[in-house]
Every structure is written in C-alpha cells, then in structure tokens.
Design goal:
heterotrimer; A mainly alpha; B mainly alpha; C alpha/beta; A: 2 domains; two-stranded antiparallel ribbon; 70% helix; B: two-stranded antiparallel sheet; 11 helices; globular
C-alpha cells in the first residue's frame, strides 16, 4: 500500500507538485501509525493484556483483557496517525510564520496581574461561599485553597534553594516533616500554642537545614541532590522507627489546632461560633486556617522578593551563575549556601507546623519522597526563580490533581467501579513528563533583574545558569 | 561464625541484584549525565512482566520443566523491559537532551511516578505472590545444629550475575557498540562528528540497562516470590546508592558497590536492628559522598579555575 | 614609567606540585606598588597556577606570598607574622597578609586582591549592573546588617545601596559600558565582557588587581583601549596590577616590570627592554637549534 502510494506520487510530481505530496504524507503517516501500533502492542501486552488476580483459593491467576489492549493500541496508533498526518504539518506551518510582537495588553496584564491575584486570593473564601453556598464551600476552601497554598508556600521556600541559589535539593520534605513533628510534639507534650510554636518550628527546621547543610554543601550538582535525598529518607525512616517519640507509622493524633486569639473553633459555649453569636459550622475554622496559610504564603513571597534585592539574594543568584567568580569577589560561598538552605528550611518548617495544625494528625506517610518531588516539580515547572511561575505551577499541579478527586460524574460514564482518584498520581506523573517536554525551562522563561539604572529589561532564561550546587 | 557465613551468602545474593540495577544507573549517568529516577520502576515493571510470563507458562501452557520456564521468563522479561525502556527514552528523555539539566530529572521523576501508578492501576495494589519457583539447597556446613545453606536460587543468582557481567564487560570493552558508548561518554558532539550515531548508541544503552534490570527483576521475583507496584523505589534508590558508592560512571564500581550495599544491609539487619537497615544504607551513601565524592572507582570531579 | 615604590606583593620560594608534576618551582618575585607587573611565558609555563596560588584558589606546596596594604613600614613585621602562624595583621598604619594561609574568598575580602579569569567568568544571567553590585557584596552585606536591617527596610541600607550604584555607574562610565548597564552580561560582545570583568574586579576596591590574559580574544583596537584604561586606573587609583598576557604589544607597552616563567621556573625578570633582549627568554619562546640545547640548558641552569 505504501509502495503504491509512493509510486503514484512519483509519477504525479511533475504536473501537480502540491497535491502529489498528499498521498505520500498519508502513506508515511500510516506507516508511522502502524509502527507505533506495533510498539504499543508490545508495550501494553504484558501489563494491560493480562491481569493478575487472586482467586478464591488465594492463588494468583491470570485474566485477559484483549478489548482493553486493543483499545490502547488503537488509541496509540490513531494518535500517532493524527499527529503525523495533521498535527505535525500544522505545527511546522505555524513555526514558519513570523512571531507576532507582544501585544500591548500584555504590559497592562503584567502590571495588574499581581494586585488582582492578591485581591482574588483574599476574597476567595467569600467568592466560594457566594458561588457554592454554605454547604459546598468547605471542600473548595479546604481541598483547593489551603492545599494549593501549602504547596505554593513550599514551592516559594524551595525556590530560594533551587531557583535562586541553584542548589538541587531532593530532600526538602525533611524540613517540612521537622516543622510538622516539632509542632505536634511540642504542642501535645507542653501545651504550647500555635503562635508560639510556629516561629519555633521554623527555627528548628532551619537549624536542621544548617546541620544537614554543613557537611553536604561542598558537594556539587547531582551529588548534592542525592545526599539531600538520602537525608530526606533518613529523617523519614527515623520518624518511622523511633516509635517512642513519634509513634511510628501510626502517627500522632489529636494535635491541638490553632485558636482565634484563644477562642477555640468548636461547638461548645465558649467556641468561636457561640461567642460571636453565630451558628456552629466547621467552615469558620477552615476559613481561619485559609487566612493563616495565606498570610504565611504571602510572607514567604514578600520576604523572598525583598531578599532578592538585598546583597544576600544577589549573592545567591551569583552563586547559581558562577561560584568561582563569587569566591574571587570575596563572597563566602559556604555561608551563602547555608543561608539559602536555612531560609528554605525555615519556610518549610512554617508550612509543616501549619500542616500539622490543620490536619490534627500526622504520620510518616505525608513526608515521602513524592512530596519533595512534587514541590521540586512546582519550582522547575514555574520557571526557576520566578515567584509568579511557582504560584501558577502550584495551582496547575495541585489544583489539577485535586480536581480529579471531584470528577465523580465519570462514574456515570465508566460505571460505578470506576474511581477517578486512582488515576490522580498516574496523571500527575504523566503531566510532569509532558510539561517538561513542552516547556523545559518552565512557564516563566524570563528573569527579572533585581536592580536597574534606566529600564528594567527581562532577561531570557537561556542566559541564566541553572547552578551546579 | 556459621551465622556470619550464612549472612554473607544472603548479602552477596542481595548485592548481586542491586549490582545489576546499579549498572543501569551508572551507564545512563555515564552517557547522558542524568540520574534516571525511573530505573527502579523499570526494574519493578520487569518483575511484573516476569510474573505474568511465569503464570502464562505454568498455569496456561503447563510447562513443568522449571529450567525451561525460568529461561523463557528471563528472555521474555528482558525483551519486553528493553522495549519499555526504549520507549521511555524516546518519549520522555530524548526531547530534553541538551536542554536544561533539571528538565530530564523532573521528567524521570514523572516517569517513575507514572510507572508505579500505571502498574498499580492495571494490576491492582495488592502484593502478588507466587509459589516458589526453585526450591532446594546445599548444606555447606552444619555445626552446632546451625546449617549454613546455599539455596539453588541463590546459586542461580550468583551464576547468572557472573555470566551476565562477563558478557556485559565483553560488550563494553570489545565491541564497536561499547566503543561508541565510551566515545559518547567522553564527548557526544565529537563522537557524532566522527560518524557515531549518538541517538542509537544512547538507545542501546537504555536497552542494555533495561535488560540487566529485567534480569534483576526476574531474580527478585524468584528469590522473594512476591512483588508489588511500589517495589521499585527502595531497591532503585539502594542500587543508585551502590552506583554512587562504586563511583558513578564506573561499571565495576557499580557491581562492587551493589555487593557492599547488599552486605551492609544484610549484616546490619542480622547484627543490629532490622528497623534501621535502610537508614544504614542511606547513611553509607551520605558518608561516602561527603568523604569520597568520586566513589571507590570513580574519577574525581576536579573544579577547574 | 617611573611608578616604582616599595613592593606590595612579595612571592618567595613559591612551589606548587600536582602529584608528581611541578607546576611552579621555587619562584620568587615582587610586585611594586603602583606599578604594572607582567607575568609571561609559553603555554603551560605555570602562570595561571601562580595566579591561583596568589588568589587562594590553590594552596601552594611551599613558599610565602605576602601582601602589604598601607605604609611600607609594615614589611618589618613580616618575619614576626610568619612565625606567629596567623594569617595577617592589621596595624593603624597598614596591614600585612600571608595569602598562602587564606582561603580564596578571604584573599579577596580582607587582603583585597581582585582577579579576572582566562575564560571570562561573568554572572551571565544577571545584568551588567547586578554584576557590579555582587562585587560590592561585603560592604553592602555589612550595611544591610547581615540582611536583618535590609529586610526591615532600614534607611542605612538604602543609602549604602545608592552609594554602591554610584560607584558601579562611575566604573561603567570609565569602561564605556554605561549604555549596556541593564543588559544581561551574557549578551555583551566579547570585548565588552572582558572589560566588564575588569570593572567588576575594580568594584571590590582592590590593592592588587590580577588580570589573567585580559587582552585575549580582543582585536588590536580593543586591546589598545584596554591598555589605556589599565594605565589610567593604575595612575588614578592607588593600585598595583599583576597581569598574565601573551599579547606582547600589551606587555611591552604598559608593564614596568616583567617576570618570565618557563616550565614553572623563573628564567628572567626586569624591565621590558632587558627582558626583550634576554637570550633565555628568546630561546624559551622561539626554541633553539639542537646543537645549542646543551649550551642553553647550561645557561638556564638545568
């Protein structure tokens, strides 16, 4: 078939040069689709074609899923055909078109985006209540608002270490865990309040940051990444195994929650709702927590933006660009790296103690490597060093995976046994790969200079180094 | 003493498995300078492919010769896992080659998350256990009623690892493919200018890495008789530790590192506490890197002023 | 060219071995205050190694590298300082530092030795202006109260930053880079990058400026401009320059004193005219006929 199409086009080329390419392309696309189909058949045959199930006698038996396998192969081949035949030529045509200059609205957009965004997040609980009503608001404020803000804050914190100082840290979750366990243990054992423990947890975390950072910061690049990963795992394993202190896998339960200037959020007579003459609802506490994490997040962002304009922040970025040059200019690189590490760890500690206070329950399950990977991917996806990029990436990644929890209507399409939450992490992993291919340098691919004489010009990220630790 | 010898035997067996996975890390790092985070999950996928092949052979086709079954399982697992890793490289890493260093790392992390969840979704989250494939053992010594045994499966693992390492060493040291690989490790641009197909060489590296991981996966399944979707991460990280300990980029280093990690883990569990065996492995990693960043056999990374 | 004073830098018996390789062998020379000293020699002679030893990037195997700031009288304290085991001493009239005992960043921060690199090392993703502000890190850090006052917005930091900007502006003016101040350093043409690296080093207020091949890759016109700038900053600022250079037009035109290295050994030293006519130097650069080897070796002392 392919041969036929080829010879036909060879013959027709002289008269109709444009049309003659069509069957050729069709045949080529078909060939590629067939190849893709073959590869995907091999790829999916073992794991989709067969299913291992345990039967009634507790033996492992196989079941086949030929229709599903056929569907996968068909989708892969069809997708490839569509790409080769329609999408790739269209993309090639589009790439040839001259790039349009940035529209004027972009300037206005940039100017108004940040105030608008801050206004929106402040008004968010009110908007949610107005839209979904009193009953449905809880999930949108808690699962979306608070969850995204926690990761946004973690992203901003890690951004100091990875994005500004160029130190690849794969064990960031360790400091989050230190913050959470510090709060949980001190609050339960000594009855200290959230507001006392929040700074204390931050200090403890940054102390750990310095302690772990000191031996490892002379390592470079991937070695630093691996040692930080090892430290992250060590801290998690210690939490698991030191059951006398941490209660191991079972975790710590009934951690005290923050109160509103000493007024607890409960249904009692001295609770928040009763004191203010309102009807009791768990929503008050959630809204209160939302504003706490919002304040913490904005604090992180504000401090980072300020630090970038201070000598220490410039030294971080210079470190990312060229460490040897830094040393030749009299910058103590070890101390500079340690401050970045400690600062990042401190914000993780704040976030961790907030997390413990919000959940009232923590266990080692919440501090796995996946968390570090998620936060790191938010930083890289946002565009290293960009505060707005990190915020957008946190909304996309965390909001996106949270939305999968809400897609219950899919059950009506795929049947009652279909559970969309199962696919949450699957799609998360896939999204990481696809987004990296789409934008390897992140969503915001420019760097804003920290100071200027005449005009602030954004710097293309191609010139910015990524740091070698 | 008997106890120690027994632990030594167990440790070398575990170390062989780590060593085979570690070669995959070290080769990929050597050639494209990237920590292939998904490699541990490729190992786990290979164990599942081996499991399914084994079930087809025994339950459906009724093959009773265990040697034949094991040989077929091994070959099928190697083939399919190679295909998986080939596709992963094509789809997730090749488009990112030459760009920003963190992008392929994130892509690999994404792939790792994807693979483990893909297996969880398609095969279910429960442990998959099979009846023992190989049973029987040699009793090497029997003092004070404490027999030191070397089981057949341990022997298979040792023998297979040794044979594969020889074959693999021959491949890298003596064949044009190995030469091309070493050239690409040194300088990809120059290798390309000299007519080496860099893309193909890198693809082959991923295929070989996957084939060795598949052997490790099959043996893991045979040895422990159970596998689950989350079994990729911890052996993966430990194998990576082994690669780093041996000196990343060094092939003998990966094997020696694997054996050391296997022995440390086994001996630590035997003499100290099984709870902290992973802490021991990770601490070794951290300590090695801090005091001997180039590992046992690696080249030192000199900072040029 | 009579900018001779007392020495600002004394290198004595400097030896640097890498394993079995002797990169620098028993080298002694001085850099006179306010003068331009050139370090020349064929490729691989060990010039950059000497630089790395002076600026603290390498720890020399043997030898003493002493730097003076302030009054020449502080040299009298040199032996006492060496015996005390300390890195340096600061007196009201001046200071003395033993560079071989100091880590690289302290050489720059306390002894005030600035340097440039053979393969330019700019912060390419930061603007030209930012590069110059990073160079003023230590004074600015102090003014920002080690970040604490800065983050709270104390006015003392704001004024210090204004002063730093003024200083950066004045150096950009001198090096003809003021129009590119807000451009990323990585986007500048090669010659401008070389100039920026020198300007950045000058922002650290150095006593001694070490330039590693500042004219490499420059065209004759750019190279002549650089000569002029170097002579001017040497005259206007209280500074001494030590430079490595292959471009003989630069070396012969601006240096007051030349040290010639070959295989890590000093084979000549003196004013440009003396060095130009030195038989050993000519032999090292041009090579000699086979029959003359023994003779030349004897005269070099091998």
């Amino acid at each position: 078939m392919a041969v036929l199409a080829n010879s036909a086009s060879e013959g027709g080329r002289a008269e109709k040069p444009i049309l003659s390419r069509e069957p050729n392309r069709f045949a080529a696309a078909l060939r590629e689709a067939a190849f893709t189909g073959l590869v995907s058949f091999g790829l999916f045959l073992p794991l989709i074609g067969f299913e291992t199930v345990t039967n009634i006698r507790d033996e492992l038996i196989l079941r086949t899923r030929w229709p599903l396998l056929a569907a996968f192969v068909f989708i892969a081949a069809g997708g490839r055909f569509f790409y080769s035949f329609a999408l790739a030529p269209w993309l090639a045509r589009r790439a040839q078109k001259p790039v349009k200059p940035a529209a004027a609205w972009r300037g206005h957009f940039k100017k108004w985006f940040v105030p608008f965004a801050i206004g929106f997040v402040i008004a968010y609980p009110v908007i949610v209540i107005l839209v979904t009503g009193w009953g449905g608001a809880l999930k949108w404020i808690d699962n979306f608002g608070i969850q995204i803000l926690i990761y946004m804050m973690l992203g901003w914190g890690l951004n100091i270490v990875v994005g500004l100082a160029g130190l690849l840290d794969l064990g960031y979750v360790a400091f989050y865990a230190v913050g959470a366990y510090s709060y949980a243990l001190l609050a339960k054992n000594f009855g200290l309040s959230f507001w006392v423990l929040l700074p204390l947890a931050g200090i403890l975390s940054s102390f750990w940051g310095i302690l772990l950072g000191f031996p490892v910061l002379r390592l470079r690049g991937d070695y630093l990444a691996i040692v930080t990963l090892a430290f992250g795992e060590i801290i998690r394993l210690i939490i698991i195994n030191w059951t006398a202190l941490t209660n191991g896998y079972a975790g710590i339960i009934s951690i005290p929650r923050p109160s509103f200037f000493g007024i607890p959020f409960n249904a009692n007579d001295n609770g928040f709702a009763a004191r203010f003459g309102l009807e009791f609802s768990p929503l008050y506490r959630v809204i209160f927590l939302y504003y706490i994490i919002l304040a913490l997040g904005l604090l992180t962002c504000f401090v980072t933006v300020r630090l970038r304009r201070l000598p220490v922040g410039r030294a971080w970025e210079a470190l990312r660009e060229d460490q040897i040059a830094c040393r030749s200019l009299g910058i103590n690189t070890t101390n500079t790296k340690l401050t970045a590490f400690a600062m990042g760890a401190m914000f993780a500690g704040f976030a961790g103690s907030f997390f413990a206070a919000r959940e009232a329950f923590i266990s080692p399950e919440s501090f796995t490597f996946i968390e570090s990977a998620t936060v790191l991917s938010i930083v890289v996806l946002g565009g290293m060093g960009s505060q707005i990029g990190v915020a957008i990436a946190a909304i996309v990644m965390i909001g996106g995976t949270e939305i999968l929890r809400q897609l219950n209507f899919l059950k009506e399409i795929f049947g009652a046994t279909f559970d969309p939450t199962q696919y949450r992490m699957l799609l998360f992993g896939l999204a990481l790969v696809l987004i990296m291919i789409w934008r390897p340098r992140g969503l915001i691919a420019t760097r804003e200079p920290s100071v200027f004489l005449k005009k602030r010009k954004a710097i293309s990220v191609d010139l910015v180094q990524e740091g070698r630790g | 003493m008997e106890y120690f010898v027994q632990q030594l035997i167990n440790g070398i067996t575990l170390g062989s498995i780590y060593g085979l996975i570690a070669i995959g890390y070290t080769m990929v790092f050597g050639i494209i300078g990237m920590v292939n985070f998904a490699h541990g999950d490729v190992f786990m996928v290979s164990a599942f492919i081996a499991l399914i092949t084994f079930l087809i052979l025994t339950a459906w086709l009724g093959i009773s010769s265990i040697v034949l079954a094991l040989a077929i399982v091994l070959i099928v697992a190697m083939l399919f896992t190679s295909l998986v890793n080939w596709v992963i490289e094509r789809v997730a890493y090749r488009p990112l080659r030459g760009s920003f260093r963190l992008a392929p790392l994130i892509s690999a992390i994404g792939m790792s998350i994807f693979l483990s969840n893909f297996v969880q979704v398609t095969q279910g989250p429960r442990n998959k256990s099979i009846p023992p494939m190989v049973s029987g053992e040699f009793v090497l010594a029997n003092h004070n009623n404490f027999p030191v045994t070397l089981s057949y499966k341990q022997l298979i693992i040792w023998g297979l690892t040794a044979v594969l390492l020889l074959a693999f060493w021959y491949l890298v040291a003596k064949t044009p493919l190995g030469r091309a690989q070493r050239a690409c490790e040194q300088d990809q641009k120059m290798a390309a200018l000299l007519g080496i197909d860099v893309d193909r060489t890198i693809s082959m590296t991923f295929i070989i890495a996957a084939a060795l991981a598949a052997v490790a996966g099959t043996m893991y399944l045979m040895y422990y008789g159970v596998v689950t979707f989350s079994d990729g991460f911890v052996p993966g990280v430990k194998a990576f530790t082994a690669a780093v300990l041996g000196g990343i980029g060094s092939l003998p280093g990966a094997v020696v590192g694997g054996l050391i990690i296997g022995l440390i883990e086994t001996l630590w569990s035997a003499y100290f506490s099984i709870d902290y065996k992973d802490v021991a492995a990770f601490s070794i990693l951290a300590i090695t890197l801090i005091f001997l960043p180039q590992g046992l056999f690696g080249r030192p990374d000199v900072e040029k002023v | 060219m009579a900018r001779e004073g007392s020495p600002v830098l004394r290198v004595e018996h400097l030896t640097m071995r890498f394993g079995g390789l002797v990169a620098v062998d028993d080298l002694s020379f001085e850099v006179q205050s306010g003068a331009i000293t050139a370090l020349i020699g064929p490729n691989g002679a060990g010039k950059t190694t000497v630089f790395n030893c002076i600026t603290g990037f390498y720890k020399p195997t043997e030898g003493r590298i002493a730097l003076r700031r302030g009054a020449p009288a502080v040299w009298s304290a040199l032996e006492g300082l060496t015996d005390s085991g300390k890195r340096g001493l600061v007196r009201p009239d001046g200071a003395l530092f033993l560079l071989e005992r100091m880590p690289d960043y302290l050489v720059a921060q306390q002894a005030r030795v600035a340097r440039t690199f053979q393969n330019i090392r700019l912060f390419s993703g930061m603007t030209v202006l930012e590069n110059l502000l990073v160079a003023q890190h230590n004074p600015l850090m102090l003014a920002s109260g080690y970040t604490l006052l800065g983050i709270l917005g104390f006015p003392s930091y704001a004024s210090a930053e204004r002063a730093a900007l003024d200083k950066a502006r004045s150096w950009l003016d001198r090096f003809g880079l003021i129009d590119r101040a807000d451009d990323p350093a990585g986007e500048l043409p090669y010659g401008a990058q070389r100039r920026l690296e020198v300007a950045r080093a000058m922002c650290t207020d150095p006593v001694l400026l070490c330039l590693d091949e500042p004219a490499a890759g420059l065209n004759p016109r750019e190279s002549a401009e650089l000569n002029e700038i170097l002579l001017r900053i040497c005259d206007e600022c209280d500074i001494s320059i030590l430079l490595i250079e292959h471009d003989m037009s630069v070396v012969m035109n601006i240096s007051d004193h030349i040290v010639v290295l070959d295989y890590g050994v000093k084979i000549a030293g003196g004013a440009p005219d003396e060095v130009r006519n030195d038989a050993k130097v000519i032999a090292a650069y041009l090579g000699v006929a086979d029959e003359e080897v023994a003779q030349v070796e004897a005269s070099v002392g091998l």
